[in-house]
Amino acid sequence: MFDCIVSLITPPLKGAVAVIRISGDRSLEIINNIFSREVSKSHYVYYGHIIDKSNNEIIDEVIVSYFKAPKSFTGEDVVEISCHGSMIIANQIIELIIKYGARIAQRGEFSARAFYNERIDLVQAEAINSLINAETLQSKRLQMYSLTGETSKLIKPIETTLADILSLIEVNIDYPEYQDIEEMTNDKIIKNINPLIEIIDKLIKNGERNKIINEGINVALVGRPNVGKSSLLNALLKTDKAIVTDIPGTTRDVVEGKINLGGIILNLLDTAGIRDSFDEVEKIGIQKSKDVIDTADLIILVMEANIVTDEDKILLDLTKNKKRIVVYNKKELIDENKLDQNKIYISALNKDISSLEKAIKKLFNVEEINNLIPSLCSSREIGLLSQTKMNLLSAREEALNNISLDLVSIYLKRAYDSIRDILGKETKVDLESEIFSRFCVGK
User: Fold this and answer.
1) CATH 2.30.110.10, domain 215-369, yes or no
2) pLDDT higher than 80, residue 431
3) Mean pLDDT, residues 398-418 taken together
4) Other residues' Cβ atoms within 10 Å of the Cβ of residue 293
5) Which of 259, 265, 378, 412 has the smallest CB count inside 10 Å?
6) Does the N-terminal peptide bond of residue 70 adopt cis geometry, omega within 30 degrees of 0?
7) Domain 152-210+376-438 class?
8) 3-state SS of the chain: helix, strand, coil percent to 5?
9) Cβ contacts of 76 within 8 Å, gap of 6 or more
């Protein structure tokens, strides 16, 4: 049993209405101590006043909703109070609720209780936070798949199949005398594992693709000094955020910005121009630029359209193993008839960067990304899918080598635990319950 918690669940700002939530076994008792009417009926809305009965002070005119456990968001008794949107009023009501036995909820505690009370799984719980922080319509739609349980359904067949295999192996080992039970062999294990590996490969591929929608792409603008990186940043942002001058080395630190390009968030990083320098401050900026190159998802290497220098060649070599787009700036300095059709030309000064935007969309398959399907797309979920695949590959290898079933099952159990970890389920598998749910062993 959890103690009773309370919190403002709308933003702590002045507005028309504020909503306060209480969750816990004493929610109904607390509201009836401070409300002008008796609350008893679940999923019913009550109009009345919050009153401090110690001095009969009316604090506010409110609407109260009651949700009886387990049919509430947290799975506990829940009361929600809609009051006028003054923080003075909201704080008075919260203080009164605390006076009667509740405590302030911690960050994410309502969602945590929904998870612990099995109202939502861990995929859905993560989706709540991601949905709140969604920066694009595509990200919002993706999280709605997870919140409604559509994403969790993708791994239920994997969980069920692994449970069936493990249960049958356990029965074969512990109850060999039962002749009417199907015999599990290494060949059958391989036959069952191969389709699971294919499913997981597809889930990982879709997850990596849709992870971009959730987290965006870290894009580093790289080039030698005065090549037009800051002008390009300003053109992408459609605002003059970075200082632009003709003096080489003007940018001495990483300048950040963010844009929505076709449903993908680009986290833009304008780096200091990379060159040999004796200026200590500039050298620090150059080192930061090199660090950004190491961690960026995409490098946009900016060069001048009319000249390639030794510094450019060094940067081409430095970024050759990274995902990158090479763009040639200052195309206004070149005759259009002399432009190389295989190169991407832009004019950051004139805000002519459409060719670069098209190249980014093509590189990350923006059109395909916008055809959204449910997918596991957080780093945690994809990591656990990869663990599952690794253990299934090990189990298949052991089975191909005709290793005994009890040793093969070690990897199968690890794969099963990883799949259950995705949903946040208890990973200590009670194989006895799995046996008895599938076979009449004790008859």
Assistant:
1) no
2) no
3) 92
4) 20
5) 259
6) yes
7) mainly alpha
8) 45, 20, 35
9) 2, 23, 24, 25, 27, 69, 70, 113, 117
